[in-house]
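Risk register update: the risk that structure generation would not scale has been downgraded. Supporting records follow, first protein first.
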Amino acid sequence: MLCYFRSCVGTLLFLSLTGGFSASAQSPDAVNAPLREVHVDGEKILTEAQVVAITGLVPGAQIGRDDLQAAADKLVQSGLFAKVSYNFQTKLASVIVTFHVEESPRIPVYFDNIPWFADSELGDVIRAKLPFFNGTLPEAGATVDQAAEAVKELLSSHGLQVSLEHAVIANPIGEGNVQAFRIEGAALQIAKLEFGDPALLTSKPAQQHLSEIIGKPYSRMTIDLFLSEAIRPIYLQQGCLRVKLGPPELRLTGDPNQKLPSQIPVYVPVVPGKIYHWKEVHWAGNSLVSEFTMSRHKQFPMP
């Protein structure tokens, strides 16, 4: 016999259908049967095995309808799924259940001011707790909380007495949003900012802008915004349209097991790329004004 149940974000709908496990008049809570198989459809990023693991269901275990609903609730509460529904059927006195899911959008993780560890190290500790972690997380839900807990455990294991916060913010270096993790309670400052391009050492605009960031609290977001708003325009004016700045690196010396100094030196790799030169511009849709006049009016350089 086939029965359908549905669980959606914000609304959990339980349909009390008769005959799910047996034809008796017992209440669903009192009727149990061995779980034979668990299947999933609709998954795209996650594998079926990963989705089943989140449900907590184990083939062979005795389950009731409440157990199936609880499993669907876990999927919803994880934040990884926008929609969840399921159906089950009894076969040879055992239960086969199929979950139908639609995965939630995910956003990149952004570690703002956790300079003790590289992004790869932070990603590894999250992946140890969440094997499906691929550098992205949903905007909310138990999965985000578990990722935060993994980072907290890493910080605590190194004797770092700081608090960790996470929030969805606008991507400081691209489009869309990011899931930003940042710490509170560490008095870290940007001591100096060095660049991989020696030309910036003699660039007056670059050197003038450095005073805007030196001595500020250490924050990758602060550094990324500085690079985007103060340094990138210098290269764009030179025709380096595809300059690559960063990501920022910490280059510390001494015993890595010792306490991190409060003054943080930051190094920024720079790849200027090719210099592009103006060639020409073409206009479309102009019927009364010539291309020559429009180009002169807009002060485009003439070939």
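Supporting record for the second protein:
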Amino acid sequence: MPPRRLFASCLLALLPLTAAAQPPTPLSVPFPRIVDRLQTLGYLPLAQACIREADGTCRRHDAFRFPVPGSLQKTADRFAWNPENPFIRGALIQFERINGLLGPRGMSEGHLHASVVAALLSAKAKPDPWRWRWVRVSKHAGTRIPEDLRIWRASRSGKPGSWIFRTVVNTGVLGSTPDGTWPIYQRLPSTTMRGVFPEPVSWGTYAALAGQTVPQWAGSSLRQPARGMVGGHPVRWVPYDDPGILWVNYFDDGRGIHYYPRAAYGFPQSAGCVEEPYQAAPKAYHLLRYGVPVTVRQG
């Protein structure tokens, strides 16, 4: 996969955290205690669990507080139960935002910073006021099925939740939107995206571009090679600088869910982001929250 700078991104500054002085270091607190606290406060609605098979083996089957779609259950069961688990990271990000640990334009990746751990263990920690939700992006490259984004939300009563939103979307050309699950770590109603678009070229054009460079984004003085590979395909990097990108939810490095004007939607067109139509984008933006897990998958 190409390095981060090759995709749409917004250059953002991380603001200082506002936590009490002399907080404990994360290593001084057992990880199970942190998980238990996230569960108690309502940020993490699942627990590590397994089902004992007839032969005595234990098959991973994490326990949610409420019934969930089979696709969500399978997704949760794929990840190790550690600080890099995207569901746990998402819970930490949401906790940070609700408890005011970051400025209004701050950014988090859901890591166990000492200030976060101190606030989490505090008696003043605020619980999660929102119903838990999940985003599923389905890619359908090479088929007639339109790509789409769906939002699932848990119920308040413990009954089955429901799919509350669906829209057609565009994912990245040449598979530049990878499969995986990541939490939303930054939300911006409007921003500027800069980077380079992977334009497919022939092998002859690829060879002719050897030794040439292009700006890392349109107007930049920084340079990078003019050619590269994406998904095993040769590409020419086309710099861009797009202001006014609306309703952005960043989830994987510089990739985000956002509005982008296209003549049509439902098939790969972007530089790696998940593009929505104008009418759908603000609706999705207002339904989503910090820390919401976003799963991208084929089919």
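Residues 1-8, 10-24 have pLDDT under 50 and may be disordered. On this basis the risk owner (M.S.) recommends closing the item.
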